[in-house]
Design brief:
With 234 residues, the chain is α+β, with helices and mostly antiparallel strands. 56% of the residues lie in helices and 16% in strands. The N and C termini lie far apart (56 Å). The C terminus is likely disordered.
Length: 234
């Protein structure tokens, strides 16, 4: 038993080490599904009265239909911090009966809170009935803290990515095309030890074109010792 607890702690530390929030949620799903022998898992974020898929592993349309129905009918359950568990779909009257045997036979949905705010739902299911014990549901609740970390950090992460994209776009707008071509040529030359023939092949032009561009962009030609050229060509 002690060994299993140690493994869970190691998994949790590994998951917390993820840099990207969405990847953090995905890795958390992988761990939870492994511990519960789940078939599929997902994290759905809450946006006012709607829920949106944030991260998933192996879900299908049956999962999306089921979670939407659960959210529409049992939202107050989640807002109270209660886990919603369907041990056997076909005999549980809280959801409509399945029209076929497709989709999960049992599933659990754990509310995810950031402070007092319900921010997401953690979903795991199985093709087998009664796949979760009370202990499994308790462990899922503990992992919901990591999911909360991922969900709440996603917006700042998205803002950083957007800021980098906007900065790059601004750079392109204010940088003349010739300056960018000059930088590209210098980059290729430096990466290839100023091997003019090789750079010409990479750019799909003749060596004479490279020499002309060096003159046009006022780039002094660097003389590379033959020993360096041989090493670069090796």
């Amino acid at each position: 038993m002690k060994r299993r607890v140690d493994l869970i702690d190691q998994f949790a530390e590994l998951v917390v080490g993820a840099d990207d929030p969405r990847r953090l949620a995905e890795r958390t799903l992988e761990v939870v599904m492994s511990l519960t022998n789940g078939r599929a898992g997902a994290v759905f974020t809450r946006d006012d009265d709607r829920i949106t898929l944030f991260a998933s592993r192996g879900i299908d349309q049956h999962v999306l239909d089921a979670i939407q129905t659960v959210w529409d009918r049992h939202r107050e359950t989640f807002e109270k911090g209660e886990t919603f568990y369907i041990p056997e779909r076909d005999s549980d009257n809280r959801l409509p009966k399945r029209s076929s045997r497709l989709g999960p036979s049992s599933f659990a949905v754990v509310p995810v809170f950031n402070g007092e705010d319900l921010v997401a739902l953690l979903y795991v299911d199985s093709l087998d009935p009664h796949f979760c014990s009370a202990h499994d549901l308790e462990r899922m609740s503990k992992f919901s803290k990591i999911v909360a970390k991922a969900v709440t950090e996603q917006q700042p992460h998205r803002d950083r990515v957007q800021a980098r994209a906007e900065a790059w776009e601004a750079y392109l707008e204010r940088t003349p095309v010739e300056d960018m071509e000059r930088e590209k040529l210098l980059l290729l030359l430096n990466r290839n030890e100023w091997n003019i023939a090789r750079v010409a092949r990479l750019m799909g032009v003749t060596r004479r074109t490279i020499y002309l561009r060096l003159q046009r962009y006022n780039i002094p030609r660097e003389r590379v010792p033959k020993t360096r050229l041989r090493a670069a060509n090796a």
